[in-house]
Design a protein that fits this description.
By secondary structure, the protein is mainly β. It has five helices and 46 strands.
Length: about 775
């Protein structure tokens, strides 16, 4: 940390400021109409801005010199223009962009810690861009729903505060906010997806398949929430969004509201964005008008989010940037749970007082400070910074599970520093590339404590240091080859403690004294990939990637028979994949097939009364298809289909087809998922979006012969589909009205998680028809 601060100071002291040169102008389309939200950047630097609602931009350049402006917008042909600044004055550069469907490809920085075009990356990557985030936000402000609706590879959400079972390709993803880990691997509580409000998100980058690029926990890939930036054409811009929410049928007690206020702008070499969001939800009801169970529910909740980002461009090649985001939610419900019976009667909410403190994530703080340098020694780009995350969530009150009753919490604090460098090279005119390298250092302290102070798990401390290198080569402009290596050195210190007693099998068990212990291991992970990008119509790729994770140590420690941590191995996942992208003026198509394996399992089971790691090898496999069509002007439509399956090799004989081998439960493997959409813009001021979402059947398990009950995660899933709608009307340049409707046809159904969990208390219906009617004002 001290070295990072010293580096910042040296750069500040050593930088000589000169009078500022500024370039400004207006960007229009081929009809001469102004284009808002166009990206205007200076090639070879981080300097950039976006046009305002009148198509205007203003961009400070810093020193004198010759600069190349890159002007780009989705759906238009990008252009470059050169400006030579010789004195401190304003320079005028305006541009007219020509329509060209699909001309601008999405950019990702998550897949390899550098900016790269998605369909030139030898991996399966999806970017949920700002337009799609906004479209889905109008339907549902719940980020879990947005991911399920916008990303085919991500399983359906649970319609609760929990994201247990919302996997990525049948495995657990690592959740990040601007690269800051949100997951709590030492004691996973399933609350890491819902850790930021979507109003603060610019885009979401989804890297599919095991990866170690950000370290521990990315068995299924990475979901990185990229927050908004403050680039704007004026010194002060403001945006206010106010919405009314609720059920369209059975409306009593369901009304709620949502307010977002945002300010952003650019002032000389500073850019900033500040926003706040408050939401109050009403009672959530099923299609038949019955209140949903409040246990971990999203109804009658207060949700808060505060966000700020400040950037300072020291000059064209040096920048300082800081970000802070706060997210919190607390349920204040006037309902209590009435437990139903799995597969026959839904668990519902009835009027009554709930014991204990309010459930929800009390706080999730994320902040970073970083320095960014462009084109320094040997053309190297550098990013160095420090971050922290502090998370605290409260679970439901358990009157009988804990001795004398109790309510558990998870508290996790992370501190980390990162150094990331990117050095380009050129061997020959036909062979060029770059090398990304650096080091991550992180400290994670996590505990699960009851609200009265009793320890369910002690305060575990994990330290992790990891150097890495990622090299890429472009051969003959068409072959993109990538390979990388990361070495993680991990140590987990566990203090001794005395367990609390819990109700297990009708009697109190536990109360053991667990010995202090240290778990130490290292993980070497590799990746390699190749893509051929000669033709837009066919860009195939193959890849091999590895990721690793540590098993949930907290679950072992809180088990009633555990007396020590025992023999725990890290789980290394191997992902093999082949696929291709196709782009044309009329369509985009992507397909991939993957196989994911791990030799050491991540499950736990009791052996001789003591919890141990189940080390049976596991295998998941599946395929993904996604199509977007633009056959008619102003009309686009498309769809996606994802199928995933998984099994465990119980007898460890390298075969997954023996009689003893078992399918993986719904906690990991989601039912097949299909989606389709239509987007229609009859006028420049009107946009209509309709989406169909469907989960299929998955029936892999039989009830236990002795009890007649299904095991946890083994309940059969009956498929169902719903229709969502989103529409907006730009009444004036500064005023927009919007309407989003979830479950438009008011389908009465159980979501997949309610079915596969096979538990009475979790057998809760999904939302009926819900709406969000809003107005947005720019001023």
């Amino acid at each position: 940390m001290k070295k990072t601060i010293a580096l910042f100071a040296l750069i500040l002291i050593g930088t000589i400021q000169s009078d500022a040169q500024t370039v400004k102008g207006t960007v229009t389309d081929d009809d001469g109409q102004p284009l808002p939200d166009v990206s205007v950047t200076v090639k070879g630097t981080f300097l950039g801005t976006v046009t305002d609602r009148s198509g205007a931009y203003r961009l400070p350049l810093g020193n004198t010199g010759t600069y190349t402006l890159q002007i780009a917008h989705v759906g238009f042909q990008p252009i470059e223009q050169t400006v030579t600044a010789t004195e401190a004055t304003d320079y005028e550069v305006s541009a007219n962009l020509q329509k060209a469907a699909g001309a601008l490809k999405e950019i990702t920085v998550t897949a390899s810690r550098k900016a790269e075009i998605v369909d030139r990356t030898p991996a399966a990557v999806q970017v949920i861009n700002a337009r799609e985030v906004q479209t889905q936000l109008l339907i549902s402000p719940n980020i879990s729903n947005i991911l399920a609706q916008a990303a085919p590879s991500i399983a359906f959400g649970t319609n609760t505060t929990s994201n247990v079972g919302q996997t990525l390709r049948g495995r657990t993803p690592l959740i990040l906010v601007d690269g800051i880990p949100q997951s709590t691997p030492l004691r996973s509580g399933g609350r890491d997806i819902r850790t930021i409000d979507p109003a603060s998100i610019e885009r979401v980058e989804v890297v599919k398949g095991a990866t170690a690029i950000y370290g521990n926990g990315a068995d299924g890939g990475v979901i990185n929430y990229i927050t908004k930036k403050g680039a704007a054409a004026k010194a002060f811009n403001a945006y206010t969004y106010l919405a009314n929410t609720g059920m369209l049928a059975h409306t009593k007690n369901t009304l709620g509201g949502r307010l977002t206020q945002q300010f952003n702008g650019t002032l000389n070499q500073f850019d900033y964005i500040v926003s706040g969001t408050y939401e109050r939800t009403g009672v959530n009801k099923s299609a038949d008008g019955v209140a949903l169970s409040p246990t971990y529910g999203l109804g009658e909740s207060n949700i808060y989010n505060g966000f700020a980002k400040l950037g300072y461009n020291i000059n064209a090649k040096h920048r300082l940037e800081g970000m802070y985001n706060f997210f919190g939610s607390a349920q204040n419900s006037s309902y209590k749970e009435q437990t139903g019976t799995y597969d026959s009667a839904a668990t519902i909410g009835v009027k009554g007082e709930r014991p204990g403190e309010q459930e929800g994530t009390r706080y999730n703080h994320n902040t970073y400070l970083k320095y960014i340098g462009k084109d320094l020694f040997l053309g190297t780009d550098i990013e160095a910074g420090a971050y922290l995350q502090s998370f605290y969530t409260v679970f439901g009150y358990e009157p009988t599970y804990f001795e004398n009753g109790g309510q558990s919490t998870i508290k996790s604090d992370k501190r980390g520093v990162r150094l990331n460098l990117n050095t380009p090279y050129r061997v020959a005119p036909w062979w060029k590339g770059d090398v990304v390298y650096g080091i991550d250092v992180m400290r994670d302290v996590t505990a699960q404590v009851l609200t009265d102070g009793r320890l369910w798990t002690p305060e575990m401390e994990m330290t992790n240091s990891a150097p890495y290198v990622q090299a890429s080569a472009t051969l003959f402009d068409d072959f993109i080859l990538k390979a990388g290596y990361r070495y993680d050195d991990v140590q987990v210190d566990i203090p001794g403690f005395t367990q609390i007693k819990i109700n297990s099998g009708g009697r109190l068990r536990g109360g053991n004294t667990v010995k202090a212990d240290t778990v130490a291991f290292s993980a070497s992970t590799f990746n390699a990939g190749l893509r051929w990008a000669r033709y837009e119509l066919f860009k195939p790729f193959v890849s091999y990637t590895q990721g690793f994770s540590i098993i949930d140590i907290g679950r072992f420690l809180r088990g009633p028979s555990v007396v020590s941590v025992g023999d725990i191995d890290p789980v290394t996942v191997n992902n093999y994949e082949a696929g291709f992208n196709s782009s044309h003026r009329l369509f985009d198509f992507a397909a991939s097939y993957f196989i994911s394996t791990n030799e050491v399992g991540a499950s736990r089971a009791a052996e001789n009364g003591i919890y141990v790691q189940q080390k049976a090898p596991e295998k998941t496999w599946g395929y993904e298809l996604q199509l977007d069509l633009r056959l008619v002007d102003k009309l686009s439509f498309g769809g996606a289909y994802v199928w995933v399956e998984g099994k465990a090799d119980k007898n460890k004989n390298d075969s997954f087809d023996d009689e003893v081998d078992t399918y993986l439960s719904g906690i990991k493997i989601s039912a097949p998922k299909a989606s389709a959409y239509v987007r229609y813009a009859p006028l420049k001021t009107v946009s209509l979006y309709a989406q169909w979402l469907h989960f299929g059947d998955r029936k892999r398990f039989a009830p236990h012969a002795t009890t007649g009950l299904y095991g946890l995660g083994e309940g059969p899933v009956e498929g169902e589909g719903i229709v969502n709608l989103s529409t907006s009307w730009q009444a004036t340049r500064n005023l927009q009205f919007s309407l989003g409707i979830e479950n438009l046809l008011n389908k009465d159904y159980f979501g997949p998680a309610a079915q596969w969990q096979a538990k009475d208390g979790e057998y809760v219906k999904a939302n009926g028809v819900r709406y969000q009617l809003g107005v947005g004002i720019k001023w």
